[in-house]
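Before the break, one more example. Copy the sequence into your notebook; we will annotate it together after we see the structure.
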Amino acid sequence: MDVRAEMVAQVHSVLVEPGAVIAIGDTLVILESMKMEIPVLAEASGTVAEIAVAVGDVIHEGDLIAVVL
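Here is what the structure looks like once it is written out:
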């Protein structure tokens, strides 16, 4: 499952790394937009296969954040 950005934001923190086992609702990354922190939550359980962003990256709507298998 691809996890994609829903808005333009800057990556504030990355809380998981490839190989991490996650559950539905776990926070993967925290984005910052307009001085608000927005958590990106896992929509499915699985294993993080890839993190496609790094702290400080500016992402746009539709950009890949992570891949969960």
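DSSP finds no helices and eight strands in the chain. The chain has a mean pLDDT of 96. Try to locate both features in your own notes.
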